[in-house]
Each structure stands twice: as C-alpha cells, then as structure tokens.
Amino acid sequence: MKIRVNQEALNKAIGVVQKAVPSRVTMPILKGILFTAKNQQLILVANDMQIGIETSIECRVEEEGSIVIDSKLIGDIVRHIKDEVIHLVVEDNLSIHMNSVDLDISIKGYDTMEFPELPEIQNPKKILIKEKVLLDMIQKTIFAVAETDYMHIINGILFEIKKNKLVVAATDGRRFALRKQKITNEELETRFVIPGSSLKEIRKLLSVDSDESIEVLMADNHVSFMINQVKIVTRLLQGEFIKYGAIIPKDFLTHVKVDTTRLLSALDINSVLAEKVNSAVILNIESDYIEVMSQSEIGNISKKVKASVKGGPLQIAFNIRFLIDGIKAVDEEVINLLFVKGSRSPLVIKSRDLESYQYLLSPVLVSDIN
To answer: What is the pTM of this model?
Structure first.
C-alpha cells in the first residue's frame, strides 16, 4: 500500500471514525482503524461491535492495500504533522512509514484479517429524513435514556414508523420523552430501538443548519445512517419497548401556560439550593401564578412567576434537573404544563401544538406536601 494524502483531510477523517473506537476492548484489534486504499480513495473504518463508522477521502493511490493502525497513535501523529501532504507506505512486514518534506516516521501496523467488517444491511427498509430534523428528534429525547444493567431496552431510543409518521421515544422509568415527525413513506411500518450510546455519537455528526436528507436503512438487527460521506452502522437493542400510548394521560386537572424564560429563571435560582440538598423543587400553583420553591435545613428560596392557570390549585414537587430538561426541550416562548391530579400524579409538558413533543415526568415525594 502506497498513498499520498492531504494531512488536513486525513486528520478530519480519523477524528470522525475514532468515535467508534472503544475506550475498553476485549479484542485488541478494535483499538485500531482499518485503512484501505483503492480507486484513488482512502477508506477508514472503526468498529466497536456496537457501532461502526466508515468514511472515505480522496488520495493518490500508488499501490492498493489495507492495514490496521492503532487509533490513538495514528491520530496523534497526523495531528502533529504540519506539512500539507503525507506519503504513507506499508511494507510486507506491516511496518508503516510516513514521511513529508523533512519528517520520517516508522510505526507498527496490524493484519486486517482479525478486523471485524461492518455488518451489511440485508433487504433493508428505507426512509429519508432531514439532517436537522433528525438532530432535533435526538436532542429532545436522548437525555431521558436510561443507563441500567437490569432492563437494557430502555438504554436506547425507540424509533417507530407508522402511517407517514416517525415517532422517537425514550424513558428511564421516571420520565418519558416523545417526539413525532411527519415523513413521506406511506407503506412502511416498523419499530426498533437504537442504543443511546450510538445516538450520542451520531448526534455529533449532525448539523442543525443542514437541509440535506439522510438515508436511513433498517433491518432486523442493525440500522445504518448515511451522513454526507460518513456511514454509521449500529446494532439494535432486542426486547419489547414500553407501549407508550398507555402511559400518557388524556385528562388533566390543571392546565398552566407560562413564559418559558421566566420559569427557567425561577428554576435556575432554585437550583442553587435544590441541587445541593435533595434535588427537589416544589411548584405551588395558584390562580394566576406559579411559585417555585426549594426548602431545606440550610435555607429556603421562593420565586413567583405569572401564569395562565385553568383548573384547581396544586402543590407538587419534581426533580429539578429532570424538570429543566423537559422545559428546555420544548424550545418555545410559552410552555404548556398539564397536571393530572394531586401531588402524586405526573406532569405532562407539551409543545404548542400539543402533539409533536410530549414529556411526562413523575413527581417526587416531599414531606411537607400532602
């Protein structure tokens, strides 16, 4: 294998695939990146057996071939090279030589035979979705994903496609986030769960400013995303995700509309105390305001926020960080807070249209709330 490749392009490509290099490995080969030179392209692949990432860059291929190189080592070396073009040569003994104008480097490579290939998506189902829309859907649900050893299915996000609608949902048992989006695929119906850890890496490759469409291919055990020149393949979690339609309340005792910025300001000042004690914040809802309170042996904080309230008064407590997460996810000037009944029933936060985004949060019990 002999190539000449642009340093900046190679550095960027290594940074992309390194997201699939595990920090802890059971197979030493997984610490490496597979480099393949052919057809005037350099293809880079990393695979931790849960998520695999492939990207390619143009280069001058003088001799085709492939090699596995330690990810951290090659990343550090290429990042420190200042010359525009790198000449990379792989010898028969797997020794790798890199040189530029006044630099000569020799490192050890590894045989490609043990490196796991990315899974092929056989007979896939396919959708197209705008890049910025997919990013928004992930952002509005990823924080509600669980990290548990006893119920692996909730360590991921549910993707459900049915009747021209894509639904994504996540829960950790204490809260539930759901985002809906119309799509154009009349015949497709499917349901699968992607690991939250994979979606965190996919999120890093997405741009909020992009109107480009992303191809998503789905099969029984894997799903792939094609983002620009980057292919991501992730395994799916197996098991039955919760039937979310049964847990979202339909009837509410109290409906509150409140300025989002002012409510977040009240929560922020209360977090100074609440996060140091029991993480609980109390909402005291009256006819025309919400009083946000935190109480403990070391002090009390209270701030009132004007609100439009329909229904009876209520006093209820929530984990303050979970409450802030749900409010920020709506990202609207005015937010809808819907309370079922009493201090032991959940809160539902909804978007303006009361449909595209919903966030259900269970209350916490505080001794001085009945």
So the answer is: 0.91
